Amino acid sequence: MVKIFVITYSTFGHINKVAESVVKGLEKAGAQVGRYQIAETLSDEILAKMHAAPKPDFPVIQASQLPEADGYLFGFPTRYGTTPAQVKAFFDATGGLWAKQALAGKSAGFFFSTASQHGGQEVTVLTSLPILAHHGIIYVPLGYPHPNLFTNEEVVGGSPWGSGTIANSDGSRQPTEKELELAELQGEKFAAVAAKLAA
Known about the structure:
alpha/beta; NAD(P)H dehydrogenase (quinone) activity; single chain; 6-stranded parallel β-sheet; FMN binding; 6 strands; globular
């Protein structure tokens, strides 16, 4: 059974909602799932002023745990077209694993959240790929496996780079049924590819 870690950072909860569907797809495909979150670096005072959502009851991932899994699906919001500082701090802590190439040959994918349609969903993944390349981790994109990626009838987050959601600048928009369908499918398809790579 392939073992996949779903690792998220979420300020307002949108990413964690999408992650629920990602996990559903992984489990549907028979994967063993570990659910983790990335450590917060902001103080409780600042988070309160931001009206941030409460943190979920998932363990905080340590870089040393990454070799335990066959693959990873990382979920986080964009910050100016790249990862939030919290996610960057986590990846910066993987230097010891890089030195040993402990993650080489493992698989990874991404899902994401932006405030608007043009908020950088695709470029957020693009700017994250160098991290995978340096570790020798194999990037697994979503592709175009579902008609929800072709619809122009409504706003739908996600792209061939991964599933995603549009949150609005005030966080008022929640993940839609179409977005969650894409997230579940991403989990299912990622598990199949990760299993082949791990075999």
